[in-house]
Records
---
Amino acid sequence: MNNRDVEAARDYHQATKLAYINLANKPPLYKTYSGLPEIPLPSDFNPPGIPTLDAVSRDAVSGDAVSGDAVSGDAVSGTTDKVPEPVDLAALAQMLYFSAGILHKRNLPVAGEVHYRAAASAGALYPTEVYVVAGEISGLEAGVYHFSPDRFSLTQLREGDFRRELAAAAGGDDTVAGSPMTLVFTAVFWRSAWKYRVRSYRYCFWDAGTILANTLATVRGGASLPARLVTGFVDSEVNAILGLDSEREGSLCLAPVGVTGSLGTLRTTGTTEGVTGEPTSQPIASIIPQSNSDLESEISYPEIIQAHAASSLANRDEVVAWRQAAELSKQEASNEPASESALTLLQGDNLTSQALGDAIVRRGSTRRFDRSNISLSQFSAIMDNSTKPLPADFISGQTVSLLDPYLIVNGVDGLESGSYYFSPVRRRLELLKKGDFREEAGHLCFEQALGADSSAVVYFLADLDRILERYGNRGYRAAQLEAGVMAGNAYLCAHSLGLGATGMTFYDDDVAEFFSPHALGKSMMFLVAMGKTHEVNRVRPFRSKVAVLLDSLARGAGQRPGG
């Protein structure tokens, strides 16, 4: 290369241009298929009328509310005599509508028609797709289906009962084979990467988690049906059943609905009451590709493809090892030592929360908090109910989580402002440091006023080294997904109490440093802020004192000449 090789300068200039997001190659919000049967979904179902706090805290198997030390009252404790709803097309339509459906449409003068969905999503990009693998149920033939939110319909991808194939991909999981249907949640990587680039892989799990929070609350609370999360499966086999291009779209989670039994039981044959016999040995036919002329405009991010491939399970033996890791994690979690510092037991009184259907329909983006205090009962109800153990195959036992929630409390009546740690095992708050940390909260939340103005911010951290050692790369997926579900639960709980909540991005290492030495060595997964929504719900310009100081230091403040 020499001075006359002018392409070097041209290439550098092209690669370092600054511009707004390229709207010309924005991926479509909805996936479509050509020439496949489409089944309209009924819309005459009733919204879930159960109190939201009760729905979020439902036990995975019994359908009863999970008891806890923190909050008591009609809305969040006790049992129910409600008879489970039948698993039919109307029940499926209700699940899909309140999980991933379009609740409102609005025409804006500048942007045109805007769709408002049931759950929150980073940048409103919604990379999550939902599929249904069902046996024959009332109103729907056995088959593999894709949910179309924009048309509120199901597209039939395959005819016939593929539950045994899906169960085999999940290592012979009884709950998958025995359930009338399993919802499969995937991520279209480019749909989020278009805006958030390499970091978007995290966002895919956060977005799937908020949808799953709605799903679990609607299914377990609204319909009183058992539902679980299965994240251990042979990726290539599940993707093949759904007909996915694995480099563009990947399966994240299975949610079998409607069967009781022990979570994640593995069988040698896959034979259950729901579906009998061995999976077919015949190759599964491919599905007509999505009709999408924009595929050639996608930008590939090898880091995303590599991270997903490295965390994939290749065979049944790896699925079994994945489940066994959860049992070892249970033993470790049960031995968590009590802190020598004083623990603040969460206290609450009787609270009335909105019906789940109303809370989901009325949920909206919180763009500004008003800095007023929330009550200790509200704070306690949100924290206790949103962090209940998930019915997931990577969690074993009533008090286990992959996450360690830390908090900055800015304005909660009866609770000192400061930094806290919440023990998922002991269900108690530990005060780490007293003080007004609004400025720090705004800075850690990527310089957003929402963090500084909120009543409290919950930071979900994880001991990533321990998780990876125990679970392998798949553990990273699980930790991110669990954080998304818990944040989604917090959204539901907060809005049902007349409050606001929002998730945000963050400065990763700065968060861990702020909560250290307690959080030393831990990694940030996700966060959610809560508080009262300001009457003017618009973004407030913000620049924290922390950022001003850092900018000054970066420009040489305090540096001696010649230093």
---
Amino acid sequence: MELKVFKWNQDSDGIVTLTWDDPDRTMNVLSSIAMRDLGAAIEKIASDASIKGAIITSGKANGFCAGAALDEMEGAAAGGGAPKSHEERVKAQYESMVVFNQLFRKLETCGKPVVAAINGLALGGGLEVTLACHYRVVADNPRIQLGLPESKVGLLPGGGGTQRLPRLMGAQNALGLIMQGTSLDPKTAAAQKVVHKVVPADQLIVEAKRWIKETPDPVQPWDKKGFEVPGGKPNDKGASTVFTMGNALYRKNSYNNYPAQRYILSCVYEGLAVPIDAGLRIESRYFTKLMMDPASRNMIRSLFLSMQDLGKGARRPANVPATQVKKLGVLGAGMMGAGIAYVSAQAGMEVVLLDTTQEAADKGKAYSVGLLDKQISKGRATEDKKAKVLGLIKPTTNYDDLKGCDLIIEAVFENREVKAGVTKKAEAQITDKAVFGSNTSTLPITGLSEASERPENFIGIHFFSPVDRMQLVEIIMGKKTGDYALAMAIDYVKAIKKTPIVVNDSRGFYTSRCFGTYVAEGQEMLAEGIAPAIIDNVGRMTGMPRGPLELADDVALDLAYKVREQTKKDLGAKYEAGPADTLIETMVAKLGRYGRKNLKGFYDYPEGGKGKKRLWPGLKDIVKFKVTSTTPDYVEELRKRFIYRQAIEASRCFEENVVTDPREADVGAILGWGFAPYTGGPLSVIDTVGAKTFVEECDRLAQKYGKRFLPGRLLRDMAEKGETFYGRFKPETKKAA
């Protein structure tokens, strides 16, 4: 028997230790090779009388198994290498899932006691392997995660997770974990009966062998006569409430946009009513149905594969040696600057946090104190860690302290003159090799770089608020920005464990420009006379995190007004006013309603943040409401306007060479402004609908609502040729902007 990713060791007691250690991957995954190995090992364990039991563990220091090989699954979802007809693809997918589940079934019915000795994270298919074992022992390490996160990338557990986990812990607890993709630490997993025992890491194999020798039990609970599901079966008295409430919560929280969560509910409900083998077939059917859904393919691609590629620096210039930011200068200690200082110090960088007054600089450092204290209160940090991070942040007003900085990030007011001033002062203190980055969200980098003596080392590094929680960083290339600056920016973003996208210079760049269309469309709808409650409710139903009027208040109406006024000034006669311009001017200039910042915008906000906000009643005096009730068809029309408006702008950014890689367009949209994740991103929307159909629908919307919906030349060309963004602009061939 030849094994490629498992190592076989049989001791004198007849106990086999299977050590999972894929030589071609940094983390073990359930690849096709791993499945073949595991199948061969199970056959040997079951048939060899000299074998008394088996232990499955990992040779990787960082984990047991991270789950399925999604790169292989994404290819299957797209039909790569599969039969061409839809019916053949469905059949092949279902049969492969049956084989997958039969493998785990053979493991738990092999007649020999099998132990999972879990020495690191076990997620998705990794946890499902352990659930098919008869005894689970896990190392006592709070960093270890155990869970089924498939729903986060548009999938459901396909290796029996929806059947075994509810049979261990009951439907209510299992549904909470599976539908949300929540992970458990070892002690919580033991308390919830997901694992049997937690032991020190060096005792894992010792405990596994002890159990096999002293109390072996090669039969799973659900295979024993008289087994009862904890909490009862779906139709048992009281148990049905779990599914009634679960369905209601799913629809409330997701607006039925996520088929994976809906199918998970069905898998558990239907599967618990039948024996385990029938339940596994039910799971395989729903998994197959999900894999045939374009939404699943798009989510796997954008939320896992593309995000992983970009996070590893896929857009980094290959000709530049690795760089390291040891000392960082942050200009401006406001909310953004303070957040940048915090994440950088967390990554071990020395940070100079500079502001105009010592009080402002100290306040910026205090932001880190608050975040660290919160972590300590939740057991996620220690006083020693707090002291170490805070020791790396130096609040100051003295530009001399910037000497020795490898990178400067400017996070001052969105004003060209102010930014030019700090640029000159900072560059006077740093070496020619240092890079200067601007955190501007709207002002073109090429224009800002005119204040720099070294425009080739001037770059945009656009963070999102709050910095400590937002995963995306938008890197903007000015016309003169060089490869070295780009390489350092990407290396820095990787070091602080965030995902970079690279775009070319433009007003609003990519994220701010496209995000602005969602907010603007909501304001256009309001100006048309659609009731504001309908607008924001439909925005959330579309899959956006918040309604467009809510978001406008959060960003600040006066900021939007100032940006529009600056844009009018810059564009002159080329500027085209819309119905929402008058609305915003009235709200800001005439009524002083700036948004959440002064507790009055489209909504009224309670003093001190206590209580709920409510729509400002005075809106009806500014806008005559013509639409105060809806039908399903009308709601769908509004949803389409929100989604298509953003997708059109994303395609325009592609046409104008602002964004050049479809991965960055989709990932940037989801991470940057919360574009409906279930779609896979705006370009995935167009590819899924089909360019021809999308263009035809946009022409209809333009005829009805205005030329902002008109497709550009690129989309029309793609429609004529039947092309897709991911086909025409193959990501693997794209180089740095």
